[in-house]
Amino acid sequence: MYHIYCPHCAEYREEEEFHAAGQAHLPRPLDPDSCTDEEWGTYLFFRKNPRGIHHELWVHAAGCRKFFNMTRDTQTYEIKEVYKIGEKPSIVAES
Amino acid sequence: MTQKNRLQNGGRIDRSQSLTFSYNGKEYQGFKGDTLASAMLANGIDLVGRSFKYSRPRGIVAAGAEEPNAVLQLGATEATQVPNVRATQQELFNGLVSASTNGWPSVETDIMGMVGKLGGNLMPPGFYYKTFMFPQSLWENYETMIRKAAGLGRSPKKNDPDSYDHINHHCDVLIVGAGPAGLAAALTAARSGARVMIADEQNEFGGCLLSTKETLDGKPAAEWVASVVAELSAFENVILLPRSTVNGYHDHNFVTIHERCTDHLADIAPALQARQRMHKVRAKWVVLATGAHDRPLVYGNNDVPGCMVASAVSTYINRYGVVPGNELVLMTTNDYGYQAALDWHEAGRRVAAIVDTRTAANGSRAQAARAKGINIILGSAVIEVQGGKRVTGVSIAPISQDGNKVTGAIKALSADTVASTGGWSPVIHLSCHTGSRPIWNDEIVGFLPGKTLQKQLTAGGINGQYELAAALSEGFAAGQKALSELGLPAVELVLPKAKVAVQDAPMSLFHIPHIKPTSQAPKQFVDYQNDVTAAGIELACREGFESIEHVKRYTAMGFGTDQGKLGNINGMAVAAKILNKTIPETGTTIFRPNYTPITFGAVAGRHRGELFDPKRYSAMHQWHIKRGAKFEDVGQWKRPWYFPQGAESMQDALNRECLAVRNSVGILDASTLGKIDIQGKDAREFLGRVYTNAWAKLAVGKCRYGLMCGEDGMVFDDGVTACLGDQHFLMTTTTGGAARVLEWLEIYHQTEWPELEVYFNTVTDHWSTLTVTGPNSRKLLSELVDYDITNENFPYMDWKQITVAGVPARVFRISFTGELSFEINVQANYGMHVWEKLFEVGAKYSLTPYGTETMHILRAEKGFIIAGQDTDGSVHPHDLGMSWCVAAKKPFSFIGKRGMARQDCMREDRKQLVGLKTKDPKQVIPEGAQGVFDRTAQIPMPMVGHVTSSYWSENLGHSIAMGFVKGGLSKMGESVFYPLADGSVIEAEICSPIFLDPKGERQNV
Amino acid sequence: MSDNTTAQETVTPIKAAVMDQLPSAAIQGQSPLHHADLDSLAQQGPKTGGVHLREHKLLCHLTLRCNQGDEAQKAAVERVLGLALPLSPLTSVEKGDYSIRWLSPDEWLILAPGLEAFDIETKFRTEMPGHYSLVNSSGGSTVLELSGENAIDVLKRSVSVDLHASVFPIGKVVSTTFAKSTAILRRKGDHTFELIIRRSFADYIWLWLQDTSREFGLVIDA
């Protein structure tokens, strides 16, 4: 059970109030019609599954209903930071 | 029967309160303050069960959570049966009924006959694994026999009469364990004003201090405990939880605690009280002050009743006034072990010998024993014990100082009790729950908590600090550390003075050698509950299982209800020895929640029966109940399924309801449909992006059906959206899709198109939706409205704000039945009023309420899909024959457009939704049936698609169905066959799914 | 705040449908807990207990969504309701029968007397500039007031948020899970809390509250 800081409600809440909505920072192609099948397939189906730092989209479903981003360590379950949509993570995996 | 092992004085029991309990049908007496185990020992009960594999007699070994054998069935009635209760943790109450969970037909009788043979030959390590390698039928035979004979408790067959509770907490510091370290930590944190919780599994606080003769400031330690508990209780911000086992330590300092509120009072909880409570705690800091368990040694026949861990002997004497035997042999590798012999001696019974595996012992406790004239045999070990249902004697021999060999002659001693200790094992279980790996420490001969990311502190025995003074000061330090981390002020605390004992180093020894090789020596048990022996572990290692994780799974070591609390480290040591590795090289031991077993009742809490899951009701629900509706679950909603009259069968009711709608008028409670209010100047643009069809030109006052797809082009929801104002729309969704669709709109708005000016709000619960449908619906409604609702004035696919039965309403002329229909939406507070008024005037039209099943049939007659029934996430609008609902020319590449244009989506042989008319009009194809083109094809037959909707249509006089068929849209008139499980085959003709009124004239009148 | 908040130009009004949804007073509305007949329970039930429950039924519930950075919009809200929009997360404001709860950075819940919904909506539509939405949700929820010495014990069994006065002071409002449903919870006093619950879940929550308060004694207040 995670304890998650909602950047909009500005306090910690229990995980049961949230939904994970998959990998963050996957912008919809601006012109889908010009994508090849492969490009579209990559956008639709291919996701990272890192061991360690990962950026995810979450929504405070039972609270303010706002989506936000989370940087999370998939190995230790440590939440490194949360940040609003449109913002960039300050913690990223070492390449 | 008298309590032959009860001392005249001493202990924390109340001899003035005698309690009667029964064990295996026989009545005994104990005292208030007893555990079931201490009362059993007081009465001289040696046998508590028979072992799982070998059916060997077993007795009580320990005095706490680590007990592997005294795992009993409790309960005075069928409904109150609780399996696998540790007698060492169950407080005695008057009228307690207990029985051994294993041993059939009784623990005293060895009916298994084959005992040794069955166990010895048929159940070596890897028994389960090896058995499964052979035909499974064999396993069934074994299982029946093993379960009956060995057993591990049983569940009640009747409903539990008790209630269970869950409660949430938040605190600054949670202290686990109310021994000296925990109490010192709690007092420190509490004095600073922190919000403190302290939980302990025992019935009273004090931990090891309850079972010791140690003093603090020269007074009995219990006096200090009482003063601390009194001070803690007075703080408003402190919660004390005795009888509460901290069972799980989860991520981000989330801790679950299992409190047994009334288990100590009676078989059934007193009125209005929860029997057990699960505390869910989010703690800023957790202090683990969980202490240590005494680790028994592994020696021949060490499971004969009378063999116990050394500290348990002290606990029974000091805390319960029970000496569990007459003649003790103590075997120890360390100084602490001597305490058991000292306590035994002081209780006035004979200590036959202290057998110390070390060659010298000069610590304070050893000196005390010597001073009392107790026989101390150094450099030796008990290599085996004699006896069947009780120890009768022991064999003692000198051993080598590497612990591997017997080096001299065997000496026999008579004894009825053997206490052993290989040293303390810190209770690191909780520290492991969050994934932290414990670290072996040679100095304390045990595992210590490893690194953790949790805000966790440890104090006392868990750190290998076993002396009282050290435990107290560690507890104080942990409290101060928590305070400083929390930014709270430090406090003063004068710790009570404890005597300091001089200690000799312990010997690192786990498995006592025998003159015979392990495989031929008397059984040396490592894990009592799962009957894992040292020989078994050696065999596993020889068979190639070198990883301790594999050894554990192969031998089932640590897989019992005790999770190997006593056995795991010994097992690792045995494996390490045979693999010629050190313990840390062999691996580590990991414990997972729960620390001790927990009842299902406590897990469920209040979420059972009526409260198991929310039931959602519409505003007309009470009417449906009165009318005798049968209900169907749609998500969490309870929707009327059909309304039987009298003894009518379901099919008869459906036929009647269907005919009523087509011939006169019916009414459906459609309130459960998801409804989303959409406002903003870009609302229209947004609709165009999330629906497949066009929305740019929908005029105010009009409604339109829309299909919603994922980016993959597959349909996931549908519904009608009305244009309420130029920048204001009301979207409807499927009942089950409401929440998902709203989140879908929000995620696109919040993450992709935040520049669009639009807001979404759910109004599902705000509106009651009453669908009046059928040729007489206009006549009926005309009587209740303030408006001309003729077709000219109120045409199909329009909506009007009018008054229905005096209530302002938005009425939509949309139809899911294909009949003339009016969907009346009124504020839900007035839904019942309008519903009842409709019935008042509807009687003359035989207004018929219908449920979801009739709705399904009527829409299927019209070929209307139900998203989720006729779609499954793998079909796009063209597959559904709904290309008319895709506006490919819209300027914005709407969600789903690119997806459905993928190569695979353009294949001509995709499965497409078609109508199916059976050759025999009476036959109804089962939904889910798979179709084939060639009924004579070889098995496995190539399958061409399944039936999604199938009903008997009373209106048409024949069955109707829809289903997917490969390339079906271009196979009209061809046959498809449905071979069924019973061998029969149904033939159907591929047709249009619109079985009734293909031109749509009925809905448009 | 700017001292020059008068609208500079006429903004194109949002073309939204506003509707007086109430019938004449002769037709009595049914709150989501109508079937529980709380009035009879209030008369016949126990008069003492650790938990008191009162339904504030058939009130006006309006959901407002707008831009918290838009001074003109904030001024309009104040003109219509006589209350300033609470901008800090999880706060609420209250004056007489009117109150506003922060639900999210662009969403507020307004409560007002039951008969005033249409009036307030109409005023908003005249006064409020720019992009916003206002939705009448009066039929979709009801308000429960939970009070008494053990009200907090019932809530600790129902919600996972921290209710300690140091972190949940009077006036704080949270949207959260409530048992297996959801609720908007606000503290009104040391021992008084307000729950706003959805209509379709009302019966579940009513059953839940009866179950959790049984050991403390439940008193229904009229």
UniProtKB/TrEMBL annotation, chain A:
Domain of life: Bacteria
Gene3D superfamilies assigned to the protein according to its UniProt record, in alphabetical order: Folate-binding superfamily (3.30.2270.10)
Pfam families in the cross-refs: SoxD
NCBIfam families: soxD
Stated name of the protein: Sarcosine oxidase subunit delta
Source organism: Marinomonas phaeophyticola
TrEMBL record, chain B:
Lineage top rank: taxon: Bacteria
Record-linked InterPro entries: 2Fe-2S-bd_N (IPR042204), FAD/NAD-bd_sf (IPR036188), FAD/NAD-binding_dom (IPR023753), GcvT/YgfZ/DmdA (IPR028896), GcvT/YgfZ_C (IPR029043), GcvT_C (IPR013977), GCVT_N (IPR006222), Sarcosine_oxidase_asu (IPR006277)
Transferase recorded as keyword: yes
A Pfam match: Pyr_redox_2
Residue stretches making up the GCVT N-terminal domain: 620-890
Domain FAD/NAD(P)-binding: 172-426
Domain SoxA A3: 522-605
UniProt keyword Oxidoreductase present: yes
Positions of the Aminomethyltransferase C-terminal domain: 911-997
Keywords for this protein: Aminotransferase, Oxidoreductase, Transferase
Family listed: Belongs to the GcvT family.
Protein's UniProt name: Sarcosine oxidase subunit alpha
TrEMBL record, chain C:
Taxonomy, superkingdom: Bacteria
Pfam families: SoxG
UniProt cross-references to InterPro entries, sorted A to Z: SoxG (IPR007375), TrmE/GcvT-like (IPR027266)
Protein name: Sarcosine oxidase subunit gamma
Organism of origin: Marinomonas phaeophyticola
Upper lineage: Bacteria, Pseudomonadati, Pseudomonadota, Gammaproteobacteria, Oceanospirillales
